[in-house]
Amino acid sequence: MPPEPTTDSGALDRLTTLVAEDLEAVNALILERMQSSVELIPQLAGYLIASGGKRIRPVLTLASARLCGHRGQRHVGLAAAVEFIHTATLLHDDVVDESDLRRGQASANVVFGNQASVLVGDFLFSRAFQVMVEDGSVDTLRILANASAVIAEGEVLQLSAAHDTVTSRDTYLRIIRAKTAELFAAACEIGAVVADRSPAECAAMRSFGTELGIAFQIVDDVLDYSARQARLGKTIGDDFREGKITLPVILAMERGGEEERAFWRRTLEEGEQAEQKDLDHAVALLQRHGALADSMAAARSHAENALRAIRLLPASPMRTALEDVVEFVVERDF
Prior knowledge:
mainly alpha; two-stranded antiparallel ribbon
């Protein structure tokens, strides 16, 4: 079993405090740009945006820009674009996954319906691109446009791998690099780009975001089998019920016998589940084979890679705060 994670989000709170003024400007811009004469758009977008997210991706953009010495305000608009992209993907994901909860409350697709969620997600993607164009930089536009395309590819790859118990570790990593780590990477890289840092430093910030994003997603996949629902903000076992093949499952299947593999095929490929009984058995198999603990070890390895990457930048309170967030990501329980 992995060690009991801390519930303290102090590291993220400290980083948010360092960029509080910038984040206030980002929030104001988000509220301004999600307005529309079509009443349902701000109503649905506001429901999700105001639902208590930590804003970790735009915070990474703001912190990266300040760490790299940016003194202007370009990072504010770009951070808002990052949050719009992220929020749009959440709306689409919840429809695809048929999720009922998001951040501890009913997901937007449950409250407003699938059609509205998809269309408002499209609206937010469009708003993101408007803000990106206003920045006037081909480099930042390229980075975020590429990220949007890669995220979509990752979601499609995950859909094609769902219910497929022969999914490999390599395919799993391709999926999470695309669907999660790519936006972390872009969020951090554009902070360095607006600060006119060297190509090596921009690459270091991109690597930091990539490795942090991979660690973040692996931990998320572990928490789906080990966290408390009240803290996680979604139903425990959602990945299991949706037939998602995540790293803990891949490790357990590699280490189990034919009878256990037949269980995974029945529950994940064929979708034949006896609800809580099968979920409990799945958790027992993951524990028996050390799949949760070893997945956490993999997350920590990527976290170490993130720390090595950011240390190319000069030491500062902002760098220390970002390093602390890396530690928070692999110790969180939500």
